[in-house]
Design a protein that fits this description.
The chain has helices at residues 6-12, 40-51, 74-81, 119-128, 136-149, 161-173, 209-215, 267-277, 343-347, 354-362, 402-421, 440-449, 508-528, and strands spanning 16-19, 27-36, 56-59, 88-89, 95-97, 152-154, 178-179, 181-183, 219-222, 224-232, 235-244, 250-264, 291-292, 296-302, 317-322, 334-337, 367-374, 386-389, 394-397, 426-429, 459-461, 465-466, 491-493. With 529 residues, it is an alpha/beta fold. The strands form five sheets. Strands 4, 5, 7, 14, 15, 16, 17, 20 and 21 form a nine-stranded mixed β-sheet that branches. Strands 1, 2, 3, 9, 10, 11, 12 and 23 form an eight-stranded mixed β-sheet that branches. Strands 6-8 form a two-stranded antiparallel sheet. The radius of gyration is 22 Å and the shape is globular. The protein starts with 5 loop residues before the first helix and ends with a helix. The mean pLDDT is 97. Flavin-adenine dinucleotide binds at residues 36-42, 59-62, 98-101, 105-107, 109-113, 194, 225-226, 265-268, 270, 274, 315, 462-463, 495-496, 506-508, 511.
Length: 529
């Protein structure tokens, strides 16, 4: 069956797409609104503002790729679609970070889990972070709108064996678990979401909101890295970008964008980076601070039967048994999920060298992996990380605190207990020096005594949040509860950077829903003026 490629079709029908890598001289573009970034926030805002009749330019640092480029191979997907070829790390290299860098942003490569912002997170923001108008009741219509737009619904196929182990472990132990809702339409259940959907079933921004905006006359400028905002008094008056070649190397071509309103949607590391580079006013030194990752621990388990974790929807079951167990701001909670298991992804996130690593990889098809995503940002000893400028760009400094390590030890124990309950033969907490553990009693003792440390314990994250928090009190926020700058009349932020804490849930639906609300209000304001 031929697979329709909406990008090729759209370009042939005359979409306004400019690949900045092909420009040979400096250029200036003008529109009502310029949006930086085309991911969850940028894509959602682009469609809503264009539908309201505004002229919109979307500026994206990454390339425009489509299903014809998604060949389900890690060796091309990571360099083509991920920031730093999926090798990004925090300053001390203790946490690996996955972020998208292509049209569609991280939504082009994400795993499709779609969860509304948990009630306790919203209540905490209202009571402690001066956020108004974002209660569960007020947001419900926006989540519904975006669930409808992106075809988000409960996964009705059986979970793959990797997810089924999570479910079976929870059933055996009487723990909470939930069937995941996914943003897919006509999904082939192949399991390669992280390499770009080869059949355009994933309802990412690449195949939904960005094409809809382009159909309505928006312009997309790809391979253009935004460097800074030019500002004077309370106005932004230009945005400057640098053209990038196909290897993402800078070209000597500068592009200037002028608009009535500017939206930063470059994600939770790069929105603060652009703000810092632009030297935006920041009297309370908030920009880039309190950046959160849901830092995640991994536990491997060897089963007798094939797990084949590369095959089938990557995430379809989660457990919230431990997320809020100790109260919102008590000991850190963790969400239990599984990741897809592909050779490079797993080889680079496991432990051992030479023989021991080869032995682990030899069991690849029998390997089940559970992950614990630690809910950071609520406990006083969980301030997250800080984005800082460097000579070459920016870095995320993210010290792992005692509170995190206490949560890590509890999480390893929960994961081992779960995996043995699901029938694992042996369990391997992914931290250097740990042997395979052969029973739950043996694991319980070993995990209580295990040595946990940065660079020794594998920590990873695909969720970046915060660094430009929303709220009404400028002492703790950069933008108001609608994402509008406290300092500039014509600047908004619409991406994962606006969260004052992590979410305790996978972020995409929170970004879609809150952006839909905020962009709708912005469209009303701009069309009224
Ligand atoms: C592998 C992976 C799996 C994930 N799985 C899930 C999941 O299953 N469920 C879920 O809810 N979440 C998941 N996430 C996270 C989710 O996709 C992100 O939280 C969400 O897409 C973030 O939206 P955003 O708008 O903040 O940024 P992004 O979607 O990351 O978009 C930001 C865009 O801005 C561009 N940009 C950055 N700097 C500049 C610049 N200077 N100039 C121009 N453009 C720039 C980037 O190239 C990027 O395209 C996953 C993420 C990854 C990487």
């Amino acid at each position: 069956m031929a697979i329709e490629d909406p990008i090729v079709t759209g370009l042939n029908s005359g979409w306004a797409h400019i690949n900045a890598g092909q420009l040979t001289s400096n250029q200036t573009f003008e529109a009502d609104v310029v949006i930086v970034g085309s991911g969850a926030g940028g894509g959602t805002a682009a469609e809503i503002l264009t539908n309201a009749g505004l002229s919109v330019i979307i500026v994206e640092g990454g390339p425009l790729k489509s299903s014809k480029d998604f060949v389900m191979e890690e060796r091309s997907a990571y360099p083509d679609l991920y920031q730093q070829a999926a090798g990004m790390k925090t300053t001390d290299k203790a946490i690996g970070i996955f972020q998208g860098r292509a049209v569609g942003g991280s939504t082009t490569i994400n795993w499709t889990t779609s969860i509304r912002t948990p009630d306790p997170a919203l209540a905490y923001w209202a009571s402690k972070k001066s956020v108004v108008g974002l209660s569960t009741d007020e947001l419900t219509p926006w989540f519904k709108k975006m669930e409808q737009r992106l075809n988000i619904s409960e996964w009705t196929f059986d979970p793959n064996r990797n997810n089924a182990a999570l479910k079976e472990g929870c059933e055996q132990l009487g723990w909470d678990y939930t069937v995941i809702k996914r943003n897919v339409k006509g999904c082939w259940n192949t399991g390669y979401c992280g390499m770009g959907c080869p059949v355009n079933a994933k309802q990412s921004m690449l195949v939904t909101t960005i094409p809809a905006a382009l159909e309505q006359g928006a312009t997309l400028v790809s391979q253009a890295k935004v460097m800074k905002l030019e500002h004077h008094n309370d106005k932004i008056y230009a945005l400057k970008a640098q053209a990038l070649d196909s290897n993402m190397k800078p070209l000597p071509v500068e592009i200037v964008f002028k608009a009535k309103h500017y939206i930063l949607a470059a994600g939770a590391i790069h929105t603060p980076t652009i703000m810092l580079r632009s030297k935006l006013p920041d009297p309370y030194e908030i920009i880039g601070k309190r950046t959160f990752l849901h830092p995640s621990l991994l536990s491997g388990a060897i089963f007798s039967d094939p797990i084949n974790g590369h095959s089938g929807a990557p995430q379809s079951i989660y457990s919230d048994e431990f997320v809020w167990k100790n109260g919102v701001d008590g000991e850190l909670g963790y969400k239990l999920e599984v990741p897809p298991i592909h050779p490079i992804l797993i080889a680079s996130k496991t432990i051992g060298y030479g023989q021991s690593h080869a032995e682990l990889m030899a069991n690849f098809n029998q390997l089940q992996v559970t992950i614990a995503l630690v809910r950071d940002g609520y406990h006083e000893n969980s301030p997250g990380g800080e984005v800082k400028l460097t000579d070459h760009g920016s870095t995320l400094d993210y010290p792992l605190t005692d509170a995190f390590w206490r949560a890590a030890r509890r999480a390893y124990a929960s994961m081992a207990e779960l995996q043995f309950a699901a029938g694992a033969n042996k369990v391997l907490p992914i931290s250097e020096g740990m042997p395979y553990l052969n029973s739950w009693p043996e694991a319980k003792k070993a995990i209580a005594e295990m040595d946990l440390a940065p660079l020794k314990t594998v920590v990873a994250s695909a969720h970046v949040m915060g660094g430009c928090p929303l709220g009404e009190d400028p002492k703790m926020s950069m933008v108001n509860s609608y994402g509008e700058s406290h300092y500039f009349d014509n600047l908004s932020v619409m991406d994962g950077s606006i969260f004052p804490t992590s979410l305790g849930a996978n972020p995409q639906l929170s970004i879609y829903g809150i952006t839909a609300r905020n962009a709708t209000r912005l469209a009303e304001k701009l069309t009224a003026s």
